[in-house]
Amino acid sequence: MSGHTGATTLVVADLDGTLTFTGRAPEPEVLAAWDAVMACPGVRVALATARSPRCVQHWFGRRLAQTDLICCNGALVVPRTGQVSLRPLPVTAVRQVVHRLAAEGTGYCLEYGDHFAASGPDVLPWMGHSHRRVIPPGTAPQLEGVVKLCVATSAAAHRATAGLRGVSVLPHSTGDADVMTAGVGKEVAAAALRRQGQQLVVLGNDENDRGLLWAADSAYLVGSGLRDLDVVSHLRRVPADPATVAGVLSGLAERLRGGRGLAVPPAWRGVPGA
């Protein structure tokens, strides 16, 4: 990939439900196609995810030397060059939300970027265990530096944030939700990375990708969610499976290498099963 200051295209992809469908690293065929996009001249790539940088590091390894990271829904941005950006939650809001969740017995995790604190050993198991620190009963967690507050259910997240200023709730298709600082989003972080004149290509699938998909010059919506976006002219829906996503990325790489433009090809329109 060329230096990002000379890049003419920014390609941003979500992880879960977009590049991977197992809660683990993307399949080899998807990673190989992603590598092909990275290798295109004039292309800058970014991964935009609700996950933390430590997870992305484990999955992508050496590729991160050429990748901008938009993590924790945009609250933690690790650019390929330059300074890390953090948008932590207001301490007063974290205190209130944790108190309300504890009172009703709903599980939660506090994400700090390099580790997370969980209200129980099995709360939100997809977050893993190697960096999990369980909050002892009767002990107040660290309230400073929380970049997102993960709640076991979306309904509980909305109840716990009712009436609080400075926060927003991002529900996931998996049923859980993230409490974030108001104004934080993947699309905000991507806009800060994007240079004037760069074309934006986006792959996403969930509510936290909505803003990115809208902002793109060309976008692929993976799976069956966000049906209201089907009217967006620059967006095409594709099935949620590794072979299809690998094909999308390979086709994108071919068009970028050939200088044939970024319009979503007609072959992807109305794909059965999407």
Structure overview:
- This protein starts with 8 loop residues before the first strand and ends in a 16-residue tail after the last helix.
- The radius of gyration is 19 Å and the shape is elongated.
- The protein has helices at about 30-40, 55-60, 90-105, 155-160, 185-195, 210-215, 240-260, and strands at about 10-15, 45-50, 65-70, 75-80, 85, 110, 115-120, 130-135, 150, 165-170, 175-180, 200-205, 220, 235-240.
- About 25% of the residues lie in helices and about 20% in strands.
- The chain is built from seven helices and 14 strands.
- It has two domains: about 5-85 and about 185-270, HAD superfamily/HAD-like (Rossmann fold, 3-Layer(aba) Sandwich), CATH 3.40.50; about 90-180, Hypothetical Protein, Haloacid Dehalogenase-like Hydrolase, Chain: A, domain 2.
Summarize this structure briefly:
This protein is α/β, with parallel strands linked by helices and 274 residues long. It is built from 7 helices and 14 strands. The protein has helices at residues 28-38, 53-60, 91-104, 154-161, 186-193, 210-215, 242-258, and strands spanning 9-13, 43-48, 67-71, 76-78, 85-86, 108-111, 116-118, 132-134, 148-151, 167-171, 177-181, 199-204, 218-222, 235-238.
